[in-house]
Amino acid sequence: MSSPALSGGGGLFTGFTKLCKGLAVVLIGGHILVQLFPPAVTYLALIPARTIPFAWNLLTAGYTEQTIYGVAISVFALLFMGKLLEPIWGSKEFVKFIFIVNVLTYICVFITAIALYYATRLEVYLYMPISGFHGVLAGFLVGIKQIVPDQELSVISIKAKWLPSIMILLSIIASFFLADSAAYLPIFGTYMSWIYLRYLQRRSETNFRGDPSDEFAFATFFPEFIRPVINPISSIFHRMFCGRSDISNDGKAYEMGGFPLPGSDTFEASRRRERGARALEERLATEKLPVATSADGSHIDASEEV
C-alpha cells in the first residue's frame, strides 16, 4: 500500500492545535508591535553588538518577525507542521523543542555574526537586527524527517526526508548573496534540532533519550555519493558537540545479551516511523471521509457505514 502524501483533504484548514494557534498569535503580535513601535526591534531582535547586556534577545528574536512575508510564512508553516508534530510529541515536548532549538539557534547565529565581523570587518554583521521563526521551522522539518521520512508532498512529489537538506541548500545559496546572518538561521536550526532529537529528546514510552537509528544519522541529510566524506566529519562533530561518537557506550546500553531493547536502533526507529505514519493516515482519513445522505434525509458518516 502506498504511503499517503503530506497534504490534507477537505479539512486542510482545520484541525490546528490550540498551542499552535497561540504561538501564531504571538508571532503576529510581535510583528504588529515592531511595525507600530519600530524602536522595539532594538530590544526584541538579535543585534550582536548589543546582545550583552540585552541577552534576552537570544530568546525573543525567534518570535519577532520584521516583515509581512516572514510572519505569513512562519504562521502558515507553524500551523501545518505543528498539526502533525504536536499530537505525536505531546504539547509539553513540542514547547520544549521550540524553546531549546530557538535559543541554541540564536546562540550559534550570535557567534557566527561576531566571527564574520572579525573576518571581514563589516559592521553590518554587528548592528543588523536578526530575527525570525525560520530556525525553528527548519527544526520542524527535521522532526518530520524523523517521524515520516518516506511520506511525499503531493504538490512537488519530494519525500519528507529531503526537506531539511533542501532548506540547508537554499540557506547556503542565500548566504552568498546576502550580508545578513539571518541566512544562517535554517542551517543552525536544522543542526541544533538534529542534535536534540538524536541525543537529548526523552521518549516517554521507553524512558530512553535520543534516536540512535542509522536512518537518522547526520549523513542521511546528504546524497549517497557524499556520505563517505560526511561520516568521518560527523563523528568528529559528535565528539566535539555531543561528547560521543557513532560507537558510543550509550548505543550499547540499548542492548542486552545481543538483543535490542525497546529504544534501540532498528526497533525504536521502526516504531516511531510506524506511529508517525499511522497518525498521518488517521488524520488524512478523517479529513477525507465523505458524508452520505440516507433515504429520510439524515446524514450518515462514511465511517459509521463501515
TrEMBL record:
<dbReference type="Pfam" id="PF08551">
    <property type="entry name" value="DUF1751"/>
</dbReference>
<keyword id="KW-1133">Transmembrane helix</keyword>
<dbReference type="GO" id="GO:0005794">
    <property type="term" value="C:Golgi apparatus"/>
</dbReference>
<feature type="transmembrane region" description="Helical">
    <location>
        <begin position="97"/>
        <end position="119"/>
    </location>
</feature>
<keyword id="KW-0812">Transmembrane</keyword>
<feature type="transmembrane region" description="Helical">
    <location>
        <begin position="160"/>
        <end position="177"/>
    </location>
</feature>
<dbReference type="GO" id="GO:0016020">
    <property type="term" value="C:membrane"/>
</dbReference>
<feature type="transmembrane region" description="Helical">
    <location>
        <begin position="67"/>
        <end position="85"/>
    </location>
</feature>
<keyword id="KW-0472">Membrane</keyword>
<dbReference type="GO" id="GO:0006890">
    <property type="term" value="P:retrograde vesicle-mediated transport, Golgi to endoplasmic reticulum"/>
</dbReference>
<feature type="transmembrane region" description="Helical">
    <location>
        <begin position="125"/>
        <end position="148"/>
    </location>
</feature>
<dbReference type="InterPro" id="IPR013861">
    <property type="entry name" value="TMEM115/Pdh1/Rbl19"/>
</dbReference>
<feature type="transmembrane region" description="Helical">
    <location>
        <begin position="23"/>
        <end position="47"/>
    </location>
</feature>
<protein>
    <recommendedName>
        <fullName>Rhomboid-like protein 19</fullName>
    </recommendedName>
</protein>
<dbReference type="InterPro" id="IPR035952">
    <property type="entry name" value="Rhomboid-like_sf"/>
</dbReference>
<feature type="region of interest" description="Disordered">
    <location>
        <begin position="285"/>
        <end position="306"/>
    </location>
</feature>
